[in-house]
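Please, structure for the following, as tokens.
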Amino acid sequence: MSLRIKSLTLGPFATNAYLLADTETKNAILIDPVDDAPAILGAAKEEGWAIKLMLATHAHLDHVLASAAIKDELQIPFLIHADCAPLLQEIPLQGMYFGLGKLPEAAQPDRLLGDNDSVELDSIRLTSLYTPGHAPGHLSFFLARHKILFSGDSLFAGSIGRTDLPGGDHDLLMNSIMKRLMALDDDVRVLPGHMGATTIGRERLTNPFILSYQS
């Protein structure tokens, strides 16, 4: 199997979207339909990939803003955790909260994911890890065969997701990180929702939030 991952950093919050493609079939999964549907669709077209599935780590506006436009264009399933439903309904209100004006509604999900659910496309096998705390229903997605974690806004290089937004819970987030993410091997590469990549081992040794929680 040959896998390629293409990342795009888009929108006013510099949010990362990820395209995961099986290079033999040219079919791809989109993780986090971020802000700019034409940019995401254009990147897939440039690579010759067909997006077949769309996942969201959580339902904050910067991770789902392009979901409706992409779903309308491609007629593909949208997958997200069940607890994200209320936030999905409030995307226009989230836009007002952040001073972005009234935003379009997000796509409605076609499948609701839970913990340890499998998402498969051709040779790509992702497992959902329930990691709430930054937002209700937050999921991380683990590509076990390649030791790659898409952490959304749970874990960043040297930091963690903010918990001061509605539904945020610092203790719950730290519990998610320690029990679910720090249980992974040190050499697992972490591709977060914002900023650059890191590894589980690096964060275990250097992340000040994790070090403080362990002390």
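The helical segments are 37-47, 61-64, 67-74, 85-89, 91-97, 170-181, 200-206, 208-214. Residues 170-181 form the longest helix (12 residues).
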